[in-house]
Amino acid sequence: MSPPDVIFLNGSTSAGKSTLAKALQARLPDGYVLFGVDDPIQRAPLRWHDNPEGFQFVTRADGAVVLLIGSEGRRLLAAWRRMMRAAVDAGLRIILDEVVLEPAMLTDWTDVLVGVDVAFVGVSCDLAELERRERARGDRAPGQARSMHELVHAHGLYDLEVDSTATSAEALADEIAVWLPTRGGVSAFERLRGA
Predict the structure, then answer these.
(1) For the chain, what is the radius of gyration of the CA atoms?
(2) How many CB atoms lie within 10 A of CB 110?
(3) Which residues does the record give as ATP binding sites (predicted)?
């Protein structure tokens, strides 16, 4: 099977998606460009950060930190998804590092990428390890991983699932690279779309 247009990595913050994406980019013979959900958020106006119209983190009673996305944040992320489609339409192959926080986001992705060959890969990690990584990173509010741990995989459907708890990014990249040519049948995105 030919290489997919998009390798879509979905998982919680601190699951190792960005490191895996870089390892996968280095491992694959075809040129893939990396894009991540942090890209549009980091480029948003500062006034959209910690703002209910943009992106705001709220701590729940259980200590989990939930990202609330307001109207401006939603508009930005919807535009970013369409930019990813434009990149594919321009002939680029891309690796997406994404955190699917709600069904509407996944529905929009499947709509935007209709007709595109997408390999949908779930990247999971044990909660204790996620929280250890989150603390070690220092660039995430403690509690984000806890709030996202199960939420990002709630749709329950992938083409491939990998676990980064005790496996290196390089080993996971090898696993994905070996799996990619064996893909076949109806993809997870097609099934999610109801095609």
Answers:
(1) 16
(2) 21
(3) 11-18
C-alpha distance from residue 178 to each of 87, 172, 181 (Å): 25, 10, 7
Task: Look at the pTM and tell me if it is higher than 0.85.
Answer: yes
Nearest by Cα to 143 from 66, 81, 84: 66
Q: Which residues are annotated as a binding site for ATP?
A: 11-18
| Beta-strand relationship, 118-124 and 6-10 | parallel
Which tokens go with 178? 């070996």
Is residue 178 classed as helix, strand or coil in its secondary structure?
helix
CB atoms within 10 A of CB 14: 24
Active site residues: 38
Annotated binding site: 11-18
Domains of the chain, start order: 6-182 (3.40.50.300)
Position of tokens 């329950």? 156
